[in-house]
Write a structure and sequence with these properties.
This protein is α/β, with parallel strands linked by helices and 235 residues long. The chain contains eight helices and seven strands. It is 32% helix and 21% strand. Helix 2 runs parallel beside helix 3. Pfam families: FtsJ.
């Protein structure tokens, strides 16, 4: 009963509670454990189809009077679910790999986001190394959007960073100081590199495989909490 597409406890619970997909329970567990989304947060959901994480994110904002915004981006056109979502939620049909930071930043009243969620996953081929590499590429794009190309370049090799890169507006990250980042990856050799890359940028970086993850899945989530303002100086 745990194979992909087979109804299980979380599938039935999603239907009972009005979530558009069982994946809602993955974010619910992340939210319960880490308190990533606070009332009034600005949340960016990368790979938002079919919309379950939009529902949980909006719930986590608190009542409408608390403010906040949820922006979902996906290659597919995603209709905002009527259950659990309100006017604070919007979706954009676009390719995250080519969508500019400036455009994404403009979708938030705060000109940035306090939480970025990346549930992006490639079309799996069944070849583990290939799928893990494609997943890592998507994860790197999420990290790059969050902290900025210049910061990542500095992390990789301080000597290779140039003033021209630092001065480019669209190279600046869209995650606000103190913000949280969640990246889904498929287990592979790039996992440890991701963890090592994020540790200096955030106050805390940890891994979690939510209980709602199917037993046949190789999904795992990297949870990065508290983007360090000091890492953003000069950018």
């Amino acid at each position: 009963m745990s194979g992909a597409g087979v109804p299980d406890f979380f599938y039935r619970e999603a239907q009972r509670l009005g979530y558009v997909a069982r994946s809602a329970f993955k974010l619910l567990q992340l939210q319960e454990k880490y308190k990533l989304i606070k009332p009034g947060s600005s949340v960016l959901d990368l790979g938002c189809a079919p919309g379950a994480w939009l529902q949980v994110a909006c719930q986590s904002l608190g009542p409408p009077k608390s403010g906040g915004v949820v922006v979902g981006i996906d290659l597919k056109k995603v209709k905002v679910p009527s259950t659990y979502c309100d006017a604070r939620v919007q979706t954009v049909c676009a390719d995250v790999m080519s969508f500019s930071r400036d455009h994404i930043r403009s979708l938030s009243p705060k000109k940035g986001f306090s939480v970025i969620l990346s549930d992006m996953c490639p079309l799996v081929s069944g070849i583990k190394t290939k799928d893990a590499a494609l997943s890592a590429e998507l994860g790197m794009r999420a990290l790059d959007l969050a902290v900025g190309s210049a910061v990542l370049a500095q992390e990789e090799d301080d000597e290779h960073e140039t003033k021209e890169e630092a001065d480019t507006e669209d190279d600046k990250g869209i995650l606000l100081p103190g913000g949280n980042l969640v990246i889904k990856l498929l287990e592979g050799e790039d996992m440890q590199e991701f963890g090592q890359m994020c540790k200096p940028l955030f106050k805390k970086a940890s891994w979690l495989r939510p209980k709602a993850t199917r037993s046949s899945s190789r999904e795992i989530y990297l949870i990065c909490q508290g983007l360090r303002p000091s890492r953003l100086r000069n950018f």
